[in-house]
Design brief:
Largest sheet: 6 strands, parallel
Number of helices: 6
Length: about 230
């Protein structure tokens, strides 16, 4: 029996690496927890295809779902890391285009500030086992290309979150992106968005990948599933 919910999942990888192959297990775990179908997208990657290629592809994928009989209120847009940032950039672009928005949005350790202004001064730098300011700045330059990294389509932190649907962000307490998540929560809540920020103490960037071995990963995915089922 087909599920009425569809998760449009956007994989991470700094906009330059990663694919559906690297993320299919994570996406399927989320879909199973949400009792949903999953639609994954192989968006174009930098540096060969810098901004706005990935954003254009994500908007096209959403429109594809609508054109093929999936209602907007059946869709959840979700993604991790760069895919999490792309998730928010996509929904903001849909809003600007006047396209019906999805029922909900989910970001797993989303990368929201490609200017790297917050990660550069993050107090979590000594504790983050995976992410460094220098590493993410390199990826940011590859994706931004000739555009300013502060453009909202690149860095949703500099966009207008007003009107976004119910939103869940999960971020690890030990990752340098936690400050971006907090800043975006403040902006969203000031704009009247129902945004739930879950900070998981001691967790690293997209710890959900370790759900097979790490209880916190399995619990985080279960929480995403619960959020999606309540929202759609």
């Amino acid at each position: 029996k087909c599920q009425p919910r569809v998760v449009l999942y956007l994989h991470g990888g700094g906009y330059a690496i990663g694919s559906n192959r690297t993320h299919v297990e994570l996406a399927c775990r989320i879909a199973e927890a949400a009792e949903a179908q999953v639609f994954m997208l192989e968006y174009r990657l930098a540096p060969e295809n810098p901004y706005p290629a990935a954003l254009d592809d994500a908007v096209h994928a959403y429109r594809y779902l609508l054109a093929n009989g999936v209602r907007a209120d059946q869709i959840v847009v979700a993604g991790d890391s760069a895919g999490g940032g792309l998730t928010f950039a996509t929904v903001m672009r849909l809003k600007a285009l006047g396209i019906a928005l999805p029922a909900a949005v989910v970001g797993l350790s989303p990368w929201l500030d490609l200017s790297c202004s917050l990660s550069a001064v993050s107090p979590r730098q000594p504790h983050d086992p995976l992410m460094t300011h220098q590493r993410i700045r390199h990826f940011a330059e590859l994706y931004s290309g000739r555009h300013a990294a502060t453009e909202p389509g690149i860095s949703p932190l500099f966009g207008d979150p007003e009107g976004l649907p119910p939103t869940l962000i999960q971020v690890g307490g030990d990752e340098i992106l936690v400050c971006e998540a907090r800043a975006f929560q403040a902006l969203a809540q000031a704009a009247g968005v129902a945004l739930e920020l879950q900070e998981w103490p001691g967790m690293f960037h997209v710890w959900h990948f370790a759900a097979r071995l790490l209880p916190e990963g399995a619990r985080a995915i279960a929480a995403i599933g619960d959020f999606v089922r309540r929202s759609v």
